[in-house]
């Protein structure tokens, strides 16, 4: 009998490819509108806006230190899958702006669309035993070592990120960004089954 919690190599490859592609599309929507998001993706976007450096390179580089935490807490398979998902997202986010263009995209709809697309991307990646790296991994590691709740670590990081964004982005843009981030979290909260799939 097939273990309902396991996936074949082909299933994992498809799931990670889908997740990374949808996540890259979400970043295209986000950066087209000049918005930000939370976690390491948001940090990479913010640094990209401030410096002009490409998001893909920044996202890949920022995640490098977090693989050790992922390996310590989640194991080698998780770390390899996460590395592949991050690398694919980084590459696609650099290429996709040449493949996709928007003539009209209202900020409110764009924020919600980003949330839906990114939420679906994260669900696929989580359900295939990986993540998009970063603060989520560190938060779980700190929770194991200190007892400080992972959700609180992520919340503190995101609050600081949005506060910094307010210093050089228009407040309506930050407000729409907050809507997008809220939709992502809502999609995950409603659809991610922690009793069956590994959460990060």
UniProtKB/TrEMBL annotation:
Lineage in the entry? Answer: Bacteria, Pseudomonadati, Pseudomonadota, Alphaproteobacteria, Rhodobacterales
Record-given protein name: YitT family protein
Lineage, top-rank taxon, reads: Bacteria
Q: Signal peptide span per the entry?
A: none
Membrane topology, record value:
Multi-pass membrane protein
Q: Which UniProt keywords apply?
A: Cell membrane, Membrane, Transmembrane, Transmembrane helix
Give the organism the record lists: Paragemmobacter ruber
Coiled-coil stretches noted in the UniProt entry, renumbered to this chain? none
Which compartments is it annotated to reside in? Cell membrane
Instruction: Tell me one Pfam family matched here.
Output: YitT_membrane
Q: Does the keyword Metal-binding apply?
A: no
Q: Where are the transmembrane segments?
A: 15-35, 41-62, 74-96, 108-126, 147-168, 174-191
| InterPro entries assigned to the protein according to its UniProt record, in alphabetical order | UPF0750_membrane, YitT
